[in-house]
Amino acid sequence: MLQKIIFDKTDIIKTIIRFLIISLLCIITVIFLFCIAAIIISRINFSYEILAPVTTAVLAVAATFDGFLISRWYKENGLIWGVFAGVVIFMYIVFTSLNYDVFDISNQFITKLITVISAGAIGGIIGVNIN
């Protein structure tokens, strides 16, 4: 049975505002976790080879956390909301790297993409299934 979905202007505005709030939540989480990681890294003696895995881990944790929160908020479609959170976080990283002229599609880029989207999906699935 097919139903026509007719959106009112207020429904469209509410949807856009929800997506903006979700995107803002994702970006704030990433920035907060990067600040914590920067404080920890600045306090210890480290090699520069650790930066790539640390940034990937921070992005994965942020995507998992955001996917979890968003799916708990909506209480359905955890996989979709988790993937959405991962995509938003990844797009933030892409736009930031484009802004600083350091964007490069490499194996590390693909690894971060897969990791962040998978972590967001896992967080979304966990968020929906926890009572």
Provide structural commentary.
By secondary structure, the chain is an all-alpha fold. It has helices at residues 9-43, 51-74, 78-99, 107-129. α1 (9-43) packs antiparallel against α2 (51-74). The longest helix has 35 residues, at 9-43. 27% of the residues are buried. The mean pLDDT is 85.
Query: What is the CA-atom radius of gyration, in angstroms?
Result: 17 Å
User: How many strand elements?
Assistant: 0
Helix/strand/pairing category: mainly alpha
Could you estimate the helical fraction of the residues in percent?
Answer: over 70%
Instruction: Summarize the main sheet.
Output: none
What overall geometry do the principal axes of the alpha carbons give? globular
Per-chain topology:
Blueprint: H1 9-43, H2 51-74, H3 78-99, H4 107-129
In short:
The protein has 131 residues and is mainly α. 79% of the residues lie in helices and 0% in strands.
Can you give keywords for this protein?
0% strand, mainly alpha, 131 residues, 79% helix
